[in-house]
Amino acid sequence: AQSVTQLGSHVSVSEGALVLLRCNYSSSVPPYLFWYVQYPNQGLQLLLKYTSAATLVKGINGFEAEFKKSETSFHLTKPSAHMSDAAEYFCAVSARGNTGKLIFGQGTTLQVKP
Amino acid sequence: GAGVSQSPSNKVTEKGKDVELRCDPISGHTALYWYRQSLGQGLEFLIYFQGNSAPDKSGLPSDRFSAERTGGSVSTLTIQRTQQEDSAVYLCASSLKGESSYEQYFGPGTRLTVT
User: Fold this and answer.
1) What is the CA angle B12-B9-A111, rounded to 5?
2) Which residues, listed in sequence order, are joined to residue B67 by a DSSP beta bridge?
3) Are residues A102 and B45, on separate chains, in Cβ contact within 8 Å?
4) What are the backbone dihedrals phi and psi of residue B54, each rounded to the nearest 5 degrees, phi first?
5) pLDDT, tens digit, for every residue of A76-112?
6) Nearest to residue B58, comparing CAs of B67, B47, B69?
7) Which of A51, A90, A95 lies at the smallest CB-CB distance from B43?
8) Which end of chain B offers a freer environment for a tag, N or C, measured as fewer CB atoms within 10 Å?
9) Between chain A and chain B, how many beta carbons pairs sit less than 8 Å apart?
10) Alpha-carbon gap, residue B22 to B79, rounded angstroms
11) Residues paired with residue A50 on neighbouring β-strands, in sequence order
């Protein structure tokens, strides 16, 4: 069975600092991996996805993530945090060749301090 | 173009009542998903529709939950005899195809409160 673990339910950074949100997955074969962002009272928006092309994936709003098979990780980073990045972030996994249903991590709330 | 829409945005109901939640997917999207977001369980998959195929109901938590998708478009999630543990935000998503490589577009959700 697939699963996703996000380390840290809350992360706080200062504006301009590096953002690092951690995600580890469990899967018998390398799955597709996703990062979604959710702003208050809104649905989820896709930030980026890994589908086995490049291991370093660039997404919207300056975010990127690196797939590391040896570490079963897909951590999300952004070099410089903006106030507008404050939101909840979800890592998700989907099995290849499957229906596309997503298995989500528990989410990480990012707080950005001025 | 129009995104995924859901109605109502908020629903308050009494324990034991039935509720219906509606999802309008993006036009042309053949795959439709329902997820539930709750404090205790996080984000969890409920049900998946792909075209005219039999739905994948593996995530429905009990037989009080059911869903249908009429004409391959609009979907309704029905919860019978609601319980307080059903309180959650119900999210709908659609994608061009029901495959992992296709992006899912999420609606804003319906917040259900069972009193």
Assistant:
1) 105
2) B77
3) yes
4) -65, 135
5) 999 999 999 999 999 999 887 778 899 999 999 999 9
6) B47
7) A90
8) N
9) 66
10) 12
11) A33
**CA-atom Rg of chain B in angstroms:** 13
In B, which residues are within 8 Å of A32 by CB distance?
A: 100-101
What strand order describes the sheet that includes A73-78?
Answer: A3-7, A19-26, A73-78, A64-68, A56-58
Give the DSSP per-residue string, B11-46.
EEE-TT--EEEEEEPPTT--EEEEEEEETTTEEEEE
pLDDT tens readout for residues B59-102 = 999 999 999 998 879 999 999 999 999 999 999 999 998 888 88
- Find chain A residues with C-beta within 8 A of B42's C-beta: 104-107
Q: HEC profile for A55-111?
A: CEEECHHHCEEEEEHHHCEEEEEECCCCHHHCEEEEEEEECCCCCCCCEECCCEEEE
What amino acid occupies position B24? D
Cα–Cα distance for residue pair B66/B85, rounded to 1 Å: 16
| Cα–Cα distance for residue pair A13/A89, rounded to 1 Å | 14
State both tokens at A73: 């990780």
Residue A45 identity (one-letter amino acid): Q
Could you tell me which of A110, A106, A111, A103 has the C-alpha nearest to residue A34? A103
User: Which two structure tokens, joined as six digits, stand for B26?
Assistant: 């993006």
